[in-house]
Amino acid sequence: MDRPGLAEFLRRRRESLQPEDVGLPRGQRRRTAGLRREEVATLCHISTDYYSRLERERGPHPSEQMIASIAQGLHLSLDERDHLFRLAGHNPPPRGAAGEHVSPGLLRIFDRLADTPAEIVTELGETLRQNALGVALCGDLTRYTGPARSVGYRWFTDPEWRALYHPDDHPLHARVFASGLRRIVTLRGPKSYAAHLQNLLLESNEEFREVWNSHEIGVTYQNVKRFVHPQVGDLELACQVLLDPEQSHSLLVYTAVPGSESYEKLELLAVIGSQYETVSGRSSS
């Protein structure tokens, strides 16, 4: 572990970032060059004391999980992330489809989306980031572990998850998820995690077997997704997708037509969403 190099790199990266770069308010009387240590600690989900000790060449040897959290909080590029891991004495994680490090460009866009539901997902529909309105709409999707992290796996195994979507659209959702999983299995190969999910579902779920055996490719949604929210009722939302091909991540942004009933319900959800339990049965806060 290169403590002096790690401390200098962290300090330089912190000083190069401005609050607006990471979705924070600038506030008044800011004298610090770049971000404050406590702001970085909040972004990295660690204590200010722990982060400060790293910048001062002190403290314990940070784990790989801790370094990954710091790299994401500082909005590092993949090259910068790998450099940070090596400074901390760890091998960098893999890049590509298996990686969960969100690119700084995608994060900058995501950080500016406060008035509409948004999330960043892997190619298997595993939610990596979700804004407050996204949580109010769908529940905290980052809390899932194991195969249930994949939205397609949840669709076939979790009845409560289905309740979030209009029942008339359930057959289409099943076809979309099966078609998408088949594409990824073909792309990543029989030893991939996508193939593992395929095998789990084939072994345990009759509905998935039936849809899978149809061998459909390229099934997509129509113009809107129809949600059934437990507090505000039916919503019709368009889903716009921005793809980061290097990491196979997608930014999903849900919007409603201005002036429509769904638009008004989204505005209401922004106000009351955090006060209620979501479809998952957990608090959205």
UniProtKB/TrEMBL annotation:
Pfam families: HTH_31 (PF13560), MLTR_LBD (PF17765)
Sequence intervals crossing the membrane: none
Domain HTH cro/C1-type: 28-81
Signal sequence range: none
Coiled coil: none
InterPro entries cross-referenced by the UniProt entry: Cro/C1-type_HTH, Lambda_DNA-bd_dom_sf, MLTR_LBD
PROSITE patterns: HTH_CROC1
Protein's name according to its UniProt entry: Helix-turn-helix domain-containing protein
Origin species: Paractinoplanes ovalisporus
UniProt lineage: Bacteria, Bacillati, Actinomycetota, Actinomycetes, Micromonosporales
